[in-house]
Design a protein that fits this description.
Helix content is about 45%, strand content about 15%. The protein is α/β, with parallel strands linked by helices. The protein has a domain of about 240 residues: 3-Layer(aba) Sandwich (Rossmann fold), CATH 3.40.50. The protein binds nicotinamide-adenine-dinucleotide (NAD) and thymidine-5'-diphosphate (TYD).
Length: about 350
């Protein structure tokens, strides 16, 4: 099996690469990543040691470049993780989200049509369903929940999903889509809630909580997500959408307090700042379809996963330092300076 993984130098993509090396060691992995600000090539240091792993620095928007990789490697399966992934950045600059997340997905699927493929899998998000009210804990996102997006990020991801479904219907491309809730774990770029708070708390810097910190996210340990994607590839039905989540709903403020407590830091570091524009209130996945059809289920409880995650960052402060060098401080100043 030859599997082409885009965005493999980012958070979830790299965890997926490592899962494949562990669980499907005979597969050849072709990793394609443009190495944007969100990537860290050192994340893949151990993958480079495997003879079954090759890496191409390429942009999924580049038709010629992507075509050349398909021509050479002839992948059997493509899993598309590559994306602009941060909601706050999409609010500041939507254009690149439309280009990478929509056009990039189309470029990849056009290459799949040209060269033939057994499966194109799109890594999607539960954010395409919009949000749920905080006072209705009985409501969950199902696969047939209407698409109703809030941010330029979620809109770009929803557009990509629609395009994937259109390529299936129109050209018969064998596609699947997974829509996952918020991930946490090793190698997440510290612009996202959990690694940002760990990084700031470790340095005794203020922890910027948006609004009152009451927004709820449904957290899934990244390795569980990766197992879910593998299950969709191997057991999922072509043309279908699968929601992946683990019923681990937490308000942001709870997460921040857990991090402070684990790191032995005072709650006085918490700073409530101006809310995100259009801030989604609550995300909550019903993973029943994936569980019933694929036999998939998350195995890491939040209380264990968050400890593992904090421990990982404590042991990899050099990795964090690499991520926060370069443009990070400028980004941080622009995003949080006047909040
Ligand atoms: P990330 O930002 O950590 O990584 C994205 C990777 O894609 C980076 O390595 C980056 O260099 C690469 N990339 C960006 N633009 C590219 C381009 N034009 N060409 C080639 N490579 C490019 O993102 P992530 O958190 O790992 O998310 C991966 C996927 O999972 C995304 O599609 C995201 O929408 C989806 N997702 C993420 C979450 C989450 O909680 N992080 C939840 C559900 C779904
Ligand atoms: P984030 O990690 O950006 O993921 P998403 O917006 O895709 O769910 O944010 C998770 C939650 O944490 C979200 O409700 C916004 C909030 N948040 C903060 O309160 N402060 C921060 O500095 C960040 C980055 C996020």
């Amino acid at each position: 099996m030859k599997i082409l993984v885009t965005g493999g130098a980012g958070f979830i993509g790299s965890n997926f690469v490592y899962l494949l090396l562990e669980e499907r060691p005979e597969w050849k992995i072709i990793c394609v990543d443009a190495l944007t600000y969100a990537a860290n090539i050192h994340t893949l240091n151990d993958a480079f040691k495997s003879p079954n792993f090759v890496f191409y620095k390429e942009d999924i928007r580049n038709r010629e470049g992507i075509s050349a990789i398909f021509e050479k490697e002839r992948p059997d399966v493509v899993v598309n993780f590559a994306a602009e992934s941060h909601v706050d950045r999409s609010i500041e600059n939507p254009a690149i989200f439309l280009e990478t997340n929509i056009i990039g997905t189309a470029v990849l699927m056009d290459a799949c049509r040209k060269y033939g493929i057994q499966r194109f899998h799109q890594v999607g998000t539960d954010e395409v369903y919009g949000d749920l009210p905080l006072d209705r804990p009985d409501l969950f996102f199902h696969e047939d929940t209407p698409i109703h997006t809030s941010s330029p990020y979620s809109t770009s991801k929803a557009s990509a999903d629609l395009l994937v479904q259109a390529y299936h219907r129109t050209y018969g491309l064998p596609v699947t889509i997974s829509r996952c809730s918020n991930n946490y774990g090793p190698y997440q770029f510290p612009e996202k809630l959990i690694p940002l708070m760990i990084n700031n708390a470790s340095q005794n810097k203020p922890l910027p909580v948006y609004g009152e910190g009451l927004n709820v996210r449904d957290w899934l340990y990244v390795k569980d997500h990766c197992y879910g994607i593998l299950a969709v590839l191997e057991k999922g039905r072509v043309g279908e959408v699968y929601n992946l989540g683990g019923h681990n709903e937490k308000a942001n403020i709870e997460i921040v307090k857990i991090i402070l407590s684990e790191l032995g830091k005072p709650e006085s570091l918490i700073t409530f700042v101006t809310d995100r524009k259009g801030h989604d209130q609550r995300y909550a996945i019903d993973p029943g379809k994936a569980m019933a059809e694929l036999g998939w289920a998350p195995t890491t409880m939040f209380k264990d996963g968050i400890k593992l995650t904090i421990q990982w960052y404590r042991e990899h402060m050099d990795w964090m330092a690499e991520c926060t060098s370069g443009g990070y401080m400028k980004y941080y100043e622009e995003m949080y300076g006047n909040r």
